[in-house]
Structure formats: C-alpha cells, structure tokens
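tool=predict chain=A
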Amino acid sequence: MKLAKNFLEFIEKQNEHKKSREEDIFLDQALYYELRHFRLPIIITVLTMLFGSLGYVIIDDFSILDAIYQTGITFTTVGFGEIAPISDMGRIFTITLIILGFGVFTLAVGTVVNVATNGEITNIIKVRKMLHSIARVKRHFVLYYLNDYTVEIANNLQRNHIPFIVIDPDPDLEAKAKKLKFPYYFQAEPHTEIAIKRANLGMAKGVITLSEKEADNIALIVSVRLFEKEYRKDRPFQIITSSKSSESAEKLRKLGADSVVVPTKLTAQRISTMAVSPDLENLLESFLYSNDTALDMEEVFIPKYSWVVLKRLQDIRLKTILNVSVVGLRYREGKFLAMPKRDILVTADSYLLLVGKVKDLKHAKKIISKVEPPVELKIL
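tool=predict ok
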C-alpha cells in the first residue's frame, strides 16, 4: 500500500511539473516550436561538412584540419581553390560537394526567408521582451479591455506615476497601445489563467475591468478571486468594475468586486450637483478631479491594532499633526457618516475618509496603521 501511495504521489508530481511546463508564461516553448524550422538545414549542413571532411581524408589522405578547411571553402563555394594537390577522384568528389553545398544553402536561405516573412518569431520575441519587463513591475494596476474609459484611467495613472498593464483580446492592441504611449500591454483573453499570470497579478495592487459586456466582467472577477484564493490569500486584490444598472452592480459586488461604478448614475449625480450646487461642483472640479493639484481624497482603513481605535476624532489631531481633514467615517457594517463631529469615536475595521495633499495622505496611512501614537501627538 505504501509503495502504491508513493507511486501515485510521484505521478501527481510529474503531472504538476508537466502542467507548469505547459503554461509557458514567457512563450519559451512557442519560441522553440518556431525555431524547429531551422533544425533540418542545420542537421544537413553538419552532415555535409562531416561527409566532405571524411571524403578528403579517405580519398587524398588530408589531415583532419586540412579536410575540414577544404570542405568549408568548397561547401561555401568561396573559390579559394585547392589547399593541396587533389587527385582526379578527389576533384570529382569536390564537384559533388559543390553541388550538394549549393542545394543545402538554397534550402537554408529558403527557410530563413520563409520564417522572416512569416514574422511569427519576431512577434514572439517582441512579446517575450514585454512579458519579462512586466515581470519586474510591482504594485501596479491591471486594466482589462481597452476602451474610452480605460484610456482616461490609464492617462490619469500615468500622470500620477502609478504603473499599469493593459490587456485586451484585440489583435490591434499593439498599434493602439503604442499610439497612446502605454509602457506595458499584451494581447490575450483576460480571464484565462495564463493571461492572469503573465500580467504578474501576484504583485499587483488591483484590477480594473471595464468591458461593455457584463459577462466579461463577471468572468474576470471570478477568475481573479480564484487566483487570489490560491496564490495570494494574505493580500486581497482591489477589483474595480462598471455596470449598466444598480441591480447588475449589486450582483457584481456579491461576486467579489470591491467597487462598481454605474456610469449613468454617476453622470446623473454630477449633473444634479451642477444644477443644485454649482459652487460645490466647481470646488470638486478644481481640487479633487483636477490633475494640476496635489489635493486628493482617500479612505484609510483602521486595523484593530491601530492606536486610533476607541479614540475621539478631536484626540487624534489629524489636522494638527498630519495636515489632513476627516470628511467622512464608514463603519464596518457599511453605515457612512458624513462630516463626523469631533467627539465621534473611531472603531476598529472602519474607514476614515480623508482629504489632503497626496504626500500627507500617504503619511497619514502609515501613522494610522501603527500601534503606538506618533511622537508629535505625545508632545502636544
């Protein structure tokens, strides 16, 4: 029984190893497969050189080095002539070798031209280079499906120096990405496991999928969550998507999306704000939606071990020590409190909505996630 168990384990390991080789993340196998066209010309060339060298050694008693040299200059038809006297039989052999060499070179040149005009190897090398560059990217966003929304998001990420990778099944993706000056991209079916691994999703910060087809977004959300469950349980991905209706948005959230944007609802809210409170909309447009200002808004998670837990907002002194303002508090159960009063208690697993400069918000996240309060607060 033990022997049978060990044998089954061995078979399982072999299957896993075979599967890992079949994944071909960096297209190594695809490249080797295309290079197979060069095998026959290389083998024939080597055999011809071996045949010629042995012939000169046997017929005219050449030394090994002289035989190889004579075969080389004859085989390549460079016209250097004889390096030593050759018998009549040797000259007949030389003519045969010249004709054979011409045929081999014709085959080799034809193979090279065929592979070059096909362009498959060039494309594989180009994609491999891109995949190796992507493998070095960290803390990036993966943008799936190239459309007008994706382009705007990518431009904003570039302006904020946030790395991203664009993936789309469109065969013309390369031309579009180069025109838009995207640094990382590749063409693939987004929800497949091999595409997820090629996007270096294990090191990514989050995923943004904005397909016009809801089925594509669903397939991708499920695929990413399954990948997360298997490879990255400790750091969940941030998944952002869009939906055409509130009902569909709720379904996408249940499937695993963290944020679902409904464009029609968002547009209606913006237009309503413009109509009711144009001054507020101008303020948001100037500070939060503009790329020319360093002011930003961000939700900061409050872990259980944080020093701010069960402290009042007025005691945390975020405005004084960090130069950021609290404009909202979202509790663990989902209830949101806008413009909370200073005497409100901060509870664990809640979120503080902060407004401030980008660098101050980053500092605030680090300070809030610590166990001990900052030195500045002790002094105050």
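The two ends are 72 Å apart (CA to CA). The domain at 37-118 is CATH 1.10.287.70 (Helix Hairpins).
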